[in-house]
Design a protein that fits this description.
636 residues; ten-stranded mixed β-sheet; 4 domains; 34% helix; Rossmann fold; five-stranded mixed β-sheet; alpha/beta; globular
Length: 636
Amino acid sequence: MSENKQNTENLIENVQTHDWNKERLEQLKQLMPDIFTNDGKLNINELKKVVDPKSVNETERYEFRWFGKSNAKREAFTPTDATLVYDETRSVNPSKNENIIIEGENLAVLKLLSKSYREQIKCIYIDPPYNTGKDFVYSDKFNQDKKEYWEDAEITENGYKIDTNTETDGRFHSNWLNMMYSRLLIARQLLREDGAIFISIDDNEVHHLRKLCDEVFGEDNFVSQFIWKKKQGGGNDSKNVIVEHEYLISYSKNIEVCELNIDKKYQLDDALYPFNDKNGEYGLITLDKSSIRFSDSLVFEIIDNEGNKYMPRIVKGKQSCWRWGNKKVNEDFDKLVFKNGKVYTKYYRPDGITAKSLLVDTRFGRTETGQDDIKKIFNNDAPFSYPKPISLIQHIYEIGTNPNDIILDFFAGSGTTGQAVTELNQEDGGNRKYILVQLPETTDEKSEAYKANYKKISDITIERNKRVVENIIKEKKQAQPDLFKKEESEEEQLKGLGFKVFKLQKSNFPRVEFAPDPEKTEEENIELLNKYIRDKEAQLTSMFNKEELITEILIKNGFKLNYTLSKQEKFKKNEILFATDGEKETLICLDVVIADETVEYFKTNTKQKLIVLERALDTTKKWNLKHYMGDKFNAF
């Protein structure tokens, strides 16, 4: 664009009123970058699909296309009927922390988390299955009405038999892309505005993953393509080249506000900082430079405290100039050093450096380092093959998070993220929280893991992080034998050490299983539905698990999984609990009948929200509660 044209456009913008259409379009792009083309234009068909998917012809016309793309996107935004249930027996110190490990298919889990944790996650790291052309154990066919999923989940304790990845599926690429696309679309909704995602990948799909992320997160939000040196030579990966590296692709939610931390563990060269003063170690650099853009205003005389005069040097016949202007020289005169007829400025040893894209130092570990890490936890056994090194994952969280942030890993594998976060918190005093999601994928019957009674990979995820916590507590006790004798000390020392386990399961509410009879009228089907709900929920109220039902209701009302419950003793006729996750709060009652006394109380006490079972109310009670409490009343 020419300078005159730009000036003209700037002038027009200055004299016109605010362009609201332009702003709204930018807001839409920020909210849903996936409905814009690579050149930034709104794709009307994609927008129509958001409003009414049935109104759009499924012919793809986007630049990056593959078989099944539209269906994968539709599946991403289709509600799930599943829920999560708390598994107390496998949880560790559940009241002392806010860490979560979820056993279940990750697309359904992400959908469940999308309300409670929307824009709450600072950093996502995933190490998805690499596309090697073999079967992989993720499919999007996990709706409640898909009988095979729930049968597998309930009958086959060892895990799931999932879709194949055959060569006819676009030479393996389409299945992998569909699997990733739907999950990344939901994951983006969970990221904070200043958050970022990091994805491990190899050469097989790195080019496709970049295109996929450009579409999901927006090309402008690309952060970096880190290169990790995974091994030190050797091997026979290829006929012509030994592959020593993998990648970490990183995108931000909004590049304008995303700012990675400096790398504080980078080993700086001591020789660069040979001097010391009250402000620390420093080196010197000449104030005059012939390599910078010359300016007459930067050529002036500087006089030191002893009256000596200095001018920028002439280097190879070319006049140099100062790097600082006259005003800065006067303001920061104490940072100047006059030595050997030259003027220098001090540069102090920094706390760290801007993160680098080449992760080649041994401090980031190698493939065998990750294997050694897990062997230390499992008494020299390795129930999981080649997890990522703890040091590599910790580096991501050091540059990508702050001490109180929430971290998500929805391809948790052996649980490296949990260990990395727990140990990083111990190192720097942080209070980062993690959410791990792992499919209960069957381990190979011939593997050491299976022989050691880890029938599912999720068993390894949970056991690894349990042992990490136990080892830390053991070390603390050995270091300070009296540390845990006082209750106050134990509370403080156990803070953040542990996790709650949840499992994905069918909804407790059977109303979602109804299928209309195509041979009956709409009115007849509505009556059948009402009868079905009455019959099924009559069974529900007599045999439901109260804790499971509370969890489902709270999750679907936007509560985080760290909620706490306390009984409200002032209610004598009904059991009413106060639920809070630190942000949201509500009263909840799952009694099968709400007493008149309770209704009367809430007619005059309308400040707190109340959730009850719809079956617990007759028409009059329901009308009264709705009339007096308004939106603060919810019959579930």
